[in-house]
């Protein structure tokens, strides 16, 4: 019988890309075609209701039942005119993916059937949600959750060959009001940030009435041929290769990065980009990444809630469209040991309703003081809550990536670039004397900040949180993550920090300081207090790990321990003051994250055992048997050769080690599964079960290097990485 690998290799060699037809040569012709955007709202709604909906989008005002009915009818009319038959509330439960439950517009009526979509069905739904992770929030007697419409993210139509569905972005909460998703806490953090930031803006510009965070999400991913993927149970079930010796050629020649895009991949990219563009996702950039078969795409930044919805939708689309091209997309942070992992850089800044980017240095000293206020408060916020930010990017898969092969370490530090570092040093060492306090004009004051920062070009890519000219870039986020988790934290800590800043500045003003002097005094104080988190050097180096330790910065390498930061008193104060999580909610979330962590390790451990026992060991034994026959045969004809015998010995050694460790790991799992406390269980999985992975893999990979290639059952790294 032919092995699955043999069949897969044959199929992978004979791929023909499906034809990809762009709807039009001009993207602007079809961009947003499947979105109920403002233009369509205007076409389908009365002027009065349109205006109410816009103000609800912009200011969060509530929509009454009558208006909701009109909006629902308009949405239905638009969706049906585009061919949709069903609608769904689209939400982001804590599983990490998106969820949908489709209902048709169709309803039987007395004399036939009609298509209906009431305002109540738009505004709220009750999916049977008892099987979503809830961390113990919902007892069975109140096993209800409901989804509620988020008007700030527009409805859209998901197309598939079989039909079209109107999707309505929603939050997902329990019957008792606790958030069960990623979106609800994010919206709360954004509301807190808006208020705090507007208050601080008032020092500088009274016309600002709203501040929103903007986000541009770069998405890295790997592609692999579908048949090869299916012939690897580890990729199929865990998204990463648990076995596999690195290919002789990997990324050492650096010949893939920004290289010409292979035809088959290009065709896939164009296809999913078209789908994304129709859904209003403003994709702009595509290129090869560093590792072979690794790629990246990035949209133009958007308002943060929308940017995150779009990224979730994009990941979903990328997976769906990949199948049309007989590819599988790997969004895992570390699909292949030994080469680069994938991240999701979160480019973040704050933008006012007057169109000003608060993190862009201005032309005048006054604008620069405003910039410095937001800039320094960001640094201060991150330095105060570095552990929480670290926790917010923690996951079982990101543990493999952080600190390994070209990814930032688990130490949170901030890179500013030499010019801004100098500016902060200058302020820190400047004296705000009594004389200056009496007469502002004496102080030449705020250092000159060039509008175009030279450091944009020599950006430090080793930093987990880097200032890149007019935005901060959080690079520690993993490729498969929902960005809401870190962005909820980043915006919440910024909100809390700005409130504290204002309190301190107001106190000084009350004491008689002039406004600018008060602002600068507090800024100066924060620069001093947050100094230890600033680092301009090579974040990948051992020296940095050592130095960070002497600076007292945390370096928590594994998820179950990193997650402790969610439960500290400092975090509780933050959650309470910003209103993003109640005690019950955060404990539930903590529990869910730990469960997710150990369950994934549990699955990986099982897959390892199964693949070793049923594929790797049998292949090695089969080869061993053929060698034994050879040894016997040589002896019979009187040839004295040790080649086969030596290989048999080596094979046997590695086989022994693989088998013993698989068995030992199984025993360890049995013990670990008995642990009741979730945190302890997660730690045990990490420190006792996962430790077997390395030794098992090492020796299995040695077997791969020895066994006859024609009988090896699993597609090899060279095939996974280079066949496309
Ligand atoms: P690089 O790979 O060099 O970091 P990219 O061009 O791939 O840069 O991605 C940069 C991302 O940052 C894009 O999504 C871009 O839209 C986004 N971006 C640019 N300016 C801002 C801003 N002010 N706020 C948020 N995101 C921004
Ligand atoms: Mg980037």
TrEMBL record:
Superkingdom in the source lineage: Bacteria
Domain GS beta-grasp: 85-177
Entries under InterPro entries matching the protein: Gln-synt_C (IPR040577), Gln_synt_N (IPR008147), Gln_synth/guanido_kin_cat_dom (IPR014746), Gln_synth_cat_dom (IPR008146), Gln_synth_gly_rich_site (IPR027303), GS_Type-3 (IPR052725), GSIII_N (IPR022147)
GO biological process: glutamine biosynthetic process
Domain annotation GS catalytic: ranges: 182-616
Gene3D superfamilies: 1.20.120.1560, Glutamine synthetase/guanido kinase, catalytic domain (3.30.590.10)
GO molecular function: glutamine synthetase activity
One Pfam family linked to the record: GSIII_N
Family per record: Belongs to the glutamine synthetase family.
PANTHER family: GLUTAMINE SYNTHETASE, TYPE-3 GLUTAMINE SYNTHETASE
Name this polypeptide is given: Glutamine synthetase type III
Upper taxonomic lineage: Bacteria, Pseudomonadati, Bacteroidota, Sphingobacteriia, Sphingobacteriales
């Amino acid at each position: 019988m032919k092995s699955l690998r043999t069949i897969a290799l044959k199929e992978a060699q004979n791929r023909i890309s499906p034809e990809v037809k762009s709807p039009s040569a001009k993207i602007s012709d079809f961009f947003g075609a499947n979105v109920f955007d403002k233009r369509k709202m205007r076409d389908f709604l009365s002027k009065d209701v349109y205006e109410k909906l816009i103000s609800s989008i912009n200011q969060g005002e509530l929509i009454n039942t009558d208006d909701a009915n009109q909006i629902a009818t308009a949405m239905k009319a638009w969706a049906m005119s585009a061919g949709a038959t069903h609608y769904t509330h689209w939400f982001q439960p804590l599983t990490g993916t998106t969820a949908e439950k489709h209902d048709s517009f169709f309803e039987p009526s007395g004399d036939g059937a009609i298509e209906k979509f009431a305002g109540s069905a738009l505004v709220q739904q009750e999916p049977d949600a008892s099987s979503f992770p809830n961390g113990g929030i919902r007892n069975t007697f109140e096993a209800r959750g409901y989804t509620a419409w988020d008007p700030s993210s527009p409805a859209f139509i998901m197309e598939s060959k079989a039909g079209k569905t109107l999707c309505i972005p929603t939050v997902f909460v329990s019957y008792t009001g606790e958030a069960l998703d990623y979106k609800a806490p994010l919206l709360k953090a954004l509301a807190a940030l808006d208020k705090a930031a507007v208050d601080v803006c008032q020092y500088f510009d009274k016309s600002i009435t709203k501040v929103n965070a903007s986000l541009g999400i770069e998405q890295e991913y790997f592609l692999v041929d579908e048949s090869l993927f299916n012939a690897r149970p580890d990729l199929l079930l865990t998204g990463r290769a648990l076995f596999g010796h690195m290919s002789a050629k990997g990324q050492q020649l650096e010949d893939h990065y920004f290289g010409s895009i292979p035809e088959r991949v290009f065709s896939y990219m164009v296809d999913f980009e078209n789908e994304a563009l129709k859904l209003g996702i403003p994709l702009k950039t595509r290129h090869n990444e560093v590792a072979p078969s690794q790629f990246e795409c990035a949209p133009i930044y958007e308002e943060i809630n929308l940017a995150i919805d779009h990224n979730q939708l994009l990941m979903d689309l990328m997976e769906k469209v990949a199948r049309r091209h007989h590819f599988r997309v790997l969004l895992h942070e570390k699909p292949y040991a030994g080469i680069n992992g994938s991240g999701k850089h979160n480019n973040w800044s704050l933008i006012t309703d007057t169109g000003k980017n608060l993190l862009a240095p201005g032309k005048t000293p006054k604008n620069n003081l405003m910039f410095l206020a937001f800039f320094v408060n960001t640094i201060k916020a991150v330095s105060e809550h570095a552990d929480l930010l670290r926790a917010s990017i923690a996951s079982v898969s990101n543990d493999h990536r952080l600190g390994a092969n070209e990814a930032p370490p688990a130490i949170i530090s901030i890179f500013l670039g030499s010019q801004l570092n100098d500016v902060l040093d200058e302020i820190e060492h400047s004296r705000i004397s009594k004389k200056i306090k009496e007469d502002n004009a004496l102080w030449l004051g705020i250092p000159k900040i060039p509008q175009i920062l030279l450091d944009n070009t020599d950006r430090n890519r080793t930093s987990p949180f880097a200032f890149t000219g007019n935005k901060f870039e959080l690079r520690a986020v993993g490729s498969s993550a929902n960005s809401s988790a870190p962005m909820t934290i980043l915006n919440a800590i910024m909100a809390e920090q700005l409130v504290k800043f204002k309190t301190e500045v107001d106190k000084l003003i009350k004491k008689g300081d002039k406004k600018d002097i008060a602002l600068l005094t507090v800024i100066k104080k924060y620069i001093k207090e947050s100094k230890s988190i600033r680092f301009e050097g090579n974040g990948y180096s051992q020296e940095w790990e050592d130095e960070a330790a002497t600076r007292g910065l945390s370096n928590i390498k594994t998820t179950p321990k990193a997650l402790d930061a969610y439960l500290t008193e400092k975090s509780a104060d933050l959650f309470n003051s910003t209103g993003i999580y109640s005690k019950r909610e955060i404990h539930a979330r903590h529990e869910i994250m730990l469960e997710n962590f150990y369950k994934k390790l549990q699955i990986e451990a099982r897959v390892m055992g199964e693949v070793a026992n049923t594929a790797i060991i049998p292949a090695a034994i089969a080869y061993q048997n053929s060698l034994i026959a050879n040894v016997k045969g040589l002896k019979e004809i009187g040839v004295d050769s040790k080649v086969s015998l030596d290989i048999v010995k080596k094979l046997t050694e590695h086989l022994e080690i693989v088998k013993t460790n698989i068995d030992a790991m199984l025993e360890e799992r049995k013990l670990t599964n008995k642990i009741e406390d979730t945190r302890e269980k997660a730690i045990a999985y990490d420190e006792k079960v996962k430790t077997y992975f390395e030794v098992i893999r090492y020796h299995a990979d040695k077997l791969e290097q020895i066994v006859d290639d024609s009988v090896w059952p699993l597609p090899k790294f060279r095939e996974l990485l280079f066949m496309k």
